[in-house]
Specification:
By secondary structure, the chain is α/β, with parallel strands linked by helices. The protein contains nine helices and eleven strands. The strands form two sheets. It has a seven-stranded mixed β-sheet with strand order 6-5-4-7-8-11-10, with helices on both faces. The chain has a four-stranded antiparallel β-sheet with strand order 1-2-3-9, with no helix packed on it. α2 (77-88) crosses α5 (147-157) and α3 (96-111) crosses α4 (128-135). The mean pLDDT is 95.
Length: 275
Amino acid sequence: MSGPQPTLRCDCGGQHLVPAFAYDAPPDGETRFDLGGQTYARAYDRCTECGHWFGRHEIDLSDLYGQAYVDSTYKGPNGMRTRLAQILALPPERSDNAGRVMRVCSFAAERVAGSVLRILDVGAGIGVFPAAMKAAGWDVVAVEPDSRTAAHLRESAGVAAHALPIEALDPAVVGHFDAITFNKVLEHVEDPVGMLAAARPLLAPGGFVYVEVPDADGASPEGPGREEFFIEHHHVFTADSLRGVAARSGFAGLEVGRIREPSTKYTVFGFLAPR
């Protein structure tokens, strides 16, 4: 197979997978990415043990998160700035981000001491969460693989930003962080265990990781058109599979829960600490 090879590094070797949803065209609401003439055919398989869903297809998505993603999703840097302002202006009861900020700040207040806390946001996107955390008094660093997005984060969100994967960050250069966040990020990579493990050397003593991922148990009863199952998601999680990813990455789950967000997204969240 030439397409993505999503893995949770399980010992079972995929023996518990059963076919779930299949697609021969993009569902309503999915971004129409330029696939370069590749045939749109994909599917999801579900693990009957932990409930995790794995994307299965032969579509090459290796260039998805560069310029093509920015152009397809936001129509360029101006679109990113406009969308950032729109989301930050939402009232709290309509904002997924407001709930996320509240959860992280409340958890940190009970666990981490310090007048100014440092946070690293991995896969920061257009900067909604970093901008809000800066406004809440945190020292914020963001990472995004696309250089244009990193520049946008510096200019529009007002935070330090690196156009590097987390695996390339050197703690001797960027320092250590009281919190590292992966908000709707791990589902986009083939090996979330490897990405999450890269956070461990960057954590300060007593620091924690916060994760949000799409919730298969919430979304699947509504059918294959849910945004949790869009093409860019190699994985759709359950609370059990998130705990498994945490354990294989060297973390323990301090708190794992499920929520329905104001946007109607089904989400599993977790606060994790190094074992």
